């Protein structure tokens, strides 16, 4: 009897821990915007039931397939645009990843639509059908900040709130093209507020409690 009770407690504890586990979607290649006819693979990472690696995939909130953790889009079309989520056997659904499929000549690619301060930010000025792009200019809020004659990628190693804004790029192929804009950096915390708990009239020797309060705007593992 004692052994059965212990086993049930262990199973319940494991189920509660599993409830706190959120699946995560990663992309290969890692860009959230791609051109039509390009290939992209979505991977779902999360705990599975023993001997069962099936994964549920959702597009714009609707379950569309139960598959392996790998979902491949071959020759993407505009109809593949949308918010993707996934869920494994022992996880809650992942955060949404919005994938956009474009018909254009030039595209500024990023690895996420929301970056938080402190994270690196890679910008890629990508030509249709992988055509070379020369004399690339990167812009933040319509102001040019980086010129590169041949390299179409630029990385900001550690972002701050000064990097917040809308980015786009321009470059030369047979003609000079300009990409659509994408926005990036978000702050992690709201500005802190100092609060005091006290009783009036405030007299010498009375107790005063001070608290510094803020809020984490975006969930990131390990942040406190």
From TrEMBL:
GO molecular function term, any single one: IgG binding
Predominant location category: membrane
PROSITE patterns with a match to the protein in the record: IG_LIKE (PS50835)
Subcellular location: Cell membrane
InterPro entries: Ig-like_dom, Ig-like_dom_sf, Ig-like_fold, Ig_Fc_receptor, Ig_sub, Ig_sub2
Positions of the Ig-like domain: 23-87, 96-169
Keyword match Disulfide bond: yes
Any one Pfam family match given in the protein's UniProt record, by short name: Ig_2
Top-rank lineage group of the source organism: Eukaryota
Keywords of the record: Cell membrane, Disulfide bond, Glycoprotein, IgG-binding protein, Membrane, Signal
Signal peptide: 1-17
Subunit and partners: Forms a heterooligomeric complex with ITAM-containing signaling subunits FCER1G. Interacts (via transmembrane domain) with signaling subunits; this interaction is a prerequisite for receptor complex expression on the cell surface and intracellular signal transduction. Binds the Fc region of antigen-complexed IgG.
Protein name per the record: Fc gamma receptor Ia
Organism: Panthera leo (Lion)
Gene that this polypeptide is encoded by: FCGR1A
């Amino acid at each position: 009897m004692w052994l059965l009770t212990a086993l049930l407690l262990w199973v319940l504890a494991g189920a509660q821990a599993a409830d706190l586990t959120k699946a995560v979607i990663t992309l290969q290649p890692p860009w959230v915007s791609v051109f039509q006819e390009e290939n992209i693979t979505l991977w779902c990472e999360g705990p599975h039931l023993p001997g069962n690696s099936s994964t549920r995939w959702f597009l714009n909130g609707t379950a569309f397939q139960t598959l392996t953790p790998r979902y491949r889009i071959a020759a993407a079309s505009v109809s593949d645009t949308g918010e993707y989520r996934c869920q494994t056997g022992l996880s809650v659904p992942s955060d949404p990843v919005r994938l956009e499929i474009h018909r254009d000549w030039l595209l500024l690619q990023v690895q996420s639509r929301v970056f938080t301060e402190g994270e690196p930010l890679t910008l890629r000025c990508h030509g249709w059908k992988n055509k070379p792009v020369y004399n690339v200019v990167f812009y933040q809020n319509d102001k040019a900040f980086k010129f590169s004659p041949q390299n179409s990628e630029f990385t900001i190693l550690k972002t701050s709130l000064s990097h917040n804004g809308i980015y786009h790029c321009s470059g030369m192929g047979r003609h000079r093209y300009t990409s659509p804009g994408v926005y990036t950096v978000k702050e992690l915390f709201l500005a802190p507020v100092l609060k005091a708990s006290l009783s009036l009239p405030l007299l010498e020797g009375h107790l005063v409690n001070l608290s510094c309060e803020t809020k984490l705007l975006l969930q990131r593992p390990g942040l406190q």
